Amino acid sequence: MSQLYPPLWEGLNTALRDIFAGGFLADRVIQRQLKFNRKWGSRDRRLFAEAVYDIVRWWRKLLFVVDVPWPSKDCWEGAPPEVMARVIEAWCGLHAVELGKGIRRQGLQIETLQNLWNDASIPRPVRQSIPDWLDAWAFEQLEDRWDPVLDALNKIAPVYLRANSLKISAEKLVSNLRSENIQAQTVKDDAIILNKRANVFLSKSFRAGHFEVQDLHSQQVANLLAPQPGERVVDACAGAGGKSLHLAALMKNKGHIISMDVAENKLQRLKERATRGGATCIEDRIIDSSNVITRLEESADRLLLDVPCSGLGVLRRNPDSKWRLSLKEVQRLKTLQADILSRYSRICKPGGIMVYATCSIMPEENERQVENFLSQNAMEWKLESQHTLWPESDGADGFFAARIKRL
């Protein structure tokens, strides 16, 4: 049985307060705590990270089983110490984690907690630990499909890697990882999946630039764009560049990729990754004015628009995002998506290919955005294919991608 010692208990309290009261991203909070507590052993570090993510994922349901009304100030603002203590003890009891000496017990009855946790009659937003507005919004669009999607989004995400074909094959990468006691297997194309979670960033293969951590369905976006060696490609919402790196590999480093974003720090991360992976055909470019887009009009053979979105397709990797998201923010993102699609699409040459993509599974952000764009540009663009990649289908994340040709 795992045991939660006082230092981990204090770390959990601090991390959860930083997330819920401070508004910090869960992954950054975890990294900061692990860096601050270097003396923790590997088992404790793993337990800490698992507990943070799982408590954040099931926050509403955990509050329900310890009888804290929702919503109330006790749900947020870091939660009073006694509420946080009950939540953490409840999580430990439900996961057979023993509280170490020195931690004050709240006197919770584990059998009562388990009965409440397994009660299938409680309302879906509580049972699946999501905000009421999100449940209503998603069910309106997905109807009966929302239940299996939600089940999938509350499961722990598998770890997929993309073998960097500029340096190594997927089969050789699996062999090399095995020699480092990291068990994995090939899936399709350059994708592999870890059989057991491991810190792959410490591996020799990672330092050598032999792979990137990238979800299976995320990899399908660049495959749909299908860039050819020698072409000019623009990744107009590149972020930290995961898909740009994939495009470079598909193009065999021949041609020119312009990777753009409004966030300079993300492009700096792309440069570091490109250097490690040997992707020499990528040029990063900050979008600091509308002129950047105007100067690129009708210059790209292929255009990728991986637009900002609700991120609901990757909710299991970022469970804290559902507590920060709001219907108002969704509406803002939808307006932004339509604007990017309208303005940035001009970058594509006549006869060129554009892929519009999101890490969402909501039709309002996906099919309906494409429909609206095509209805306004029917004489200039033609839909070739579109795909919703569902999170419950093969354990990968939820994505959408539409391939559109400029006539």
Structure overview:
This protein has helices spanning 6-20, 26-36, 42-57, 59-65, 81-94, 110-117, 124-127, 132-142, 146-153, 170-179, 204-207, 216-225, 242-250, 264-277, 290-294, 321-324, 327-344, 367-376, 391-394, and strands at residues 3-4, 98-99, 160-163, 184-188, 191-194, 211-213, 232-235, 256-261, 282-286, 300-306, 348-358, 381-389, 399-406. By secondary structure, the chain is an alpha/beta fold. The radius of gyration is 23 Å and the shape is globular. It starts with a strand and ends with a strand. 40% of the residues are buried. The model has no long low-confidence stretch (mean pLDDT 94).
Name the beta content range: 15-25%
Mean pLDDT: 94
Major β-sheet, in short? 7 strands, mixed
Q: Total strand count, please? A: 13
Low-confidence stretches: none
- Describe the strand arrangement of the main beta sheet, using strand numbers: 9-8-7-10-11-13-12
Assign an overall shape.
globular
Total number of helical segments?
19
Helix content: 40-55%
Give the helix/strand class.
alpha/beta
Separation of the first and last Cα atoms: 63 Å
| Computed CA radius of gyration, to the nearest angstrom | 23 Å
